[in-house]
Amino acid sequence: MSSKMSPSNRLPTLQRTIARLTHRRERLDTLSRKYWRARRAIFLIGSVLALLAWYSAGGRVGLVLALALAFLFAVVAFYHNRVRESLRRHGLLRYGYSILRG
Q1: Domain locations in the chain as residue ranges
Q2: Which of 38, 37, 63 is nearest to 50 (CA)?
């Protein structure tokens, strides 16, 4: 069996690869939107909760809550950045395959 691909098999293989990458990109887009909404919610709700805790329970409780929510925000941001980097890489791959398609 030869390691070279015959011209008749090349186009369907490339089309399957393009379809797989497109599907992966769509899933990553959906995941990125979820992370973005989570980041906004953590920031907005966390800010309000930290301020309410600061005024009602005292500075120490508000500060601990703010630090905990900042840590949670940082964790979500870390994973969101990983998804965004993957999207960037898939975008470059998709661009390269669109050149092949003509």
Answers
A1: 20-101
A2: 63
pLDDT in tens, 10-60: 888 888 888 888 888 889 999 999 999 999 999 999 999 999 999 998 889
Q: What are phi and psi of 6, to 5 degrees?
A: -75, 150
pTM: 0.73
Token readout for 19 is 């379809």
Q: What are phi and psi of 3, to 5 degrees?
A: -80, -15
Model pLDDT, residue 12: 87
Question: With contact defined as beta carbons under 8 Å apart, do 31 and 83 qualify?
Answer: yes
State how far the Cα of 60 lies from the Cα of 54, in Å rounded to an integer: 7
Residues 6+ apart with CB under 8 A from 65: 46, 49, 50, 53
